[in-house]
């Protein structure tokens, strides 16, 4: 079956599902395969559970509702590309080493206050999540915001082929996922694949003026909207009040709305807020709506959340961690007022050959400050002799955490998703 014929079926049944356990009546079930699963084996069950059709790439039966293709994943991506081509609206793609999900959430909050906006749910930002996000964009859409994650070269280039972004944001370049990329230069090349696509399509990017490398990477792009702490169409500086980030604007926002008090913890979120304001201004969102949208946004999913537990305050930032985000979080935490500061840090994943050196740097950074207590969790910290408490994993640390005797303390909990530090609070 060709894509046009499949698309006509999709228009009749526009709900796509890849998990047979979640199939609802009228869904299109795409039988994806992975290292440890084969969706083809569940295609007939999906049909029995109400799916209108099942797209498969193995001969698993003679039910007329089975649509056989050469490759289910490729078909899903091709269908998303075809659907994308039906729209003549801005598609804004966001990538970067740190902050892309928070930036996406802030940008979506601002744009959706004024436009019918569709966006990536959570951090569903890979070769499966992006086409599924595109296929959820309805005909009433005025803007779409697509998050793009990657841990290998050429991934973002591939995403752009079916997302076809007209606008782009690279939040920053660090060494996240360096195990897959091989080097920081390759991280830059990989994230730069978004700029490369935008450049060929005469599109627009929004970029943080403070980062010299974004000036170099963005050369040749038709339109660049700069935001920063010193220069740009939007210029602002950070303040902190009760651990939360405040932003004072000296450029881009009228005096009436020149201060925004967020519910985000950490001055490292300043570029994310400035970006959301710059995007909102560019697309004509009224300043009052921009301010209200950002001030009302509350982080979730263990991202810069402030949790009150008894007399203690917990900063939970345990969704992801890499050397640059960890450094920013620790330095920001050290700068906060208060005496009883407790660090609970999980190991940083996907650093490959850089892991030992980067975790040693992290311990050296911790040593520069005075803490009430420091606990390290994960095998990544095991090679180092230090004065800090260590647990092999979050399960091992949970009982200690539940029986702690900290009082009137401020605690930072941060680590890679694979460490699952949120278990400490469960």
Please characterize this protein's 3D structure.
With 426 residues, the protein is α/β, with parallel strands linked by helices. The protein has 3 domains: 3-71, 3-Layer(aba) Sandwich (Udp-n-acetylmuramoylalanyl-d-glutamate--2,6- Diaminopimelate Ligase, Chain: A, domain 1); 87-296, UDP-N-acetylmuramoyl-L-alanine:D-glutamate ligase; 305-425, Mur ligase, C-terminal domain (Protein-Tyrosine Phosphatase, Chain A, Alpha-Beta Complex). Helices cover 34% and strands 22% of the residues. The protein contains 14 helices and 19 strands. The strands form 3 sheets. Strands 6-7-5-8-9-10-11-12-13 form a 9-stranded mixed beta sheet, sandwiched between helices. The chain has a 6-stranded mixed beta sheet with strand order 14-15-19-16-17-18. Helix 2 links the parallel strand 2 and strand 3. Helix 3 (72-84) crosses helix 5. The protein is globular. The chain starts with a helix and ends in a 12-residue tail after the last strand. The mean pLDDT is 92.
The class by helix and strand makeup works out as alpha/beta
> Could you give the count of β-strands?
19
Helix content percent band: 25-40%
Strand order of the largest sheet: 6-7-5-8-9-10-11-12-13
What is the terminal-to-terminal distance? Answer: 48 Å
Number of domains: 3
- Overall mean pLDDT: 92
Q: Radius of gyration, Cα only, in angstroms?
A: 23 Å
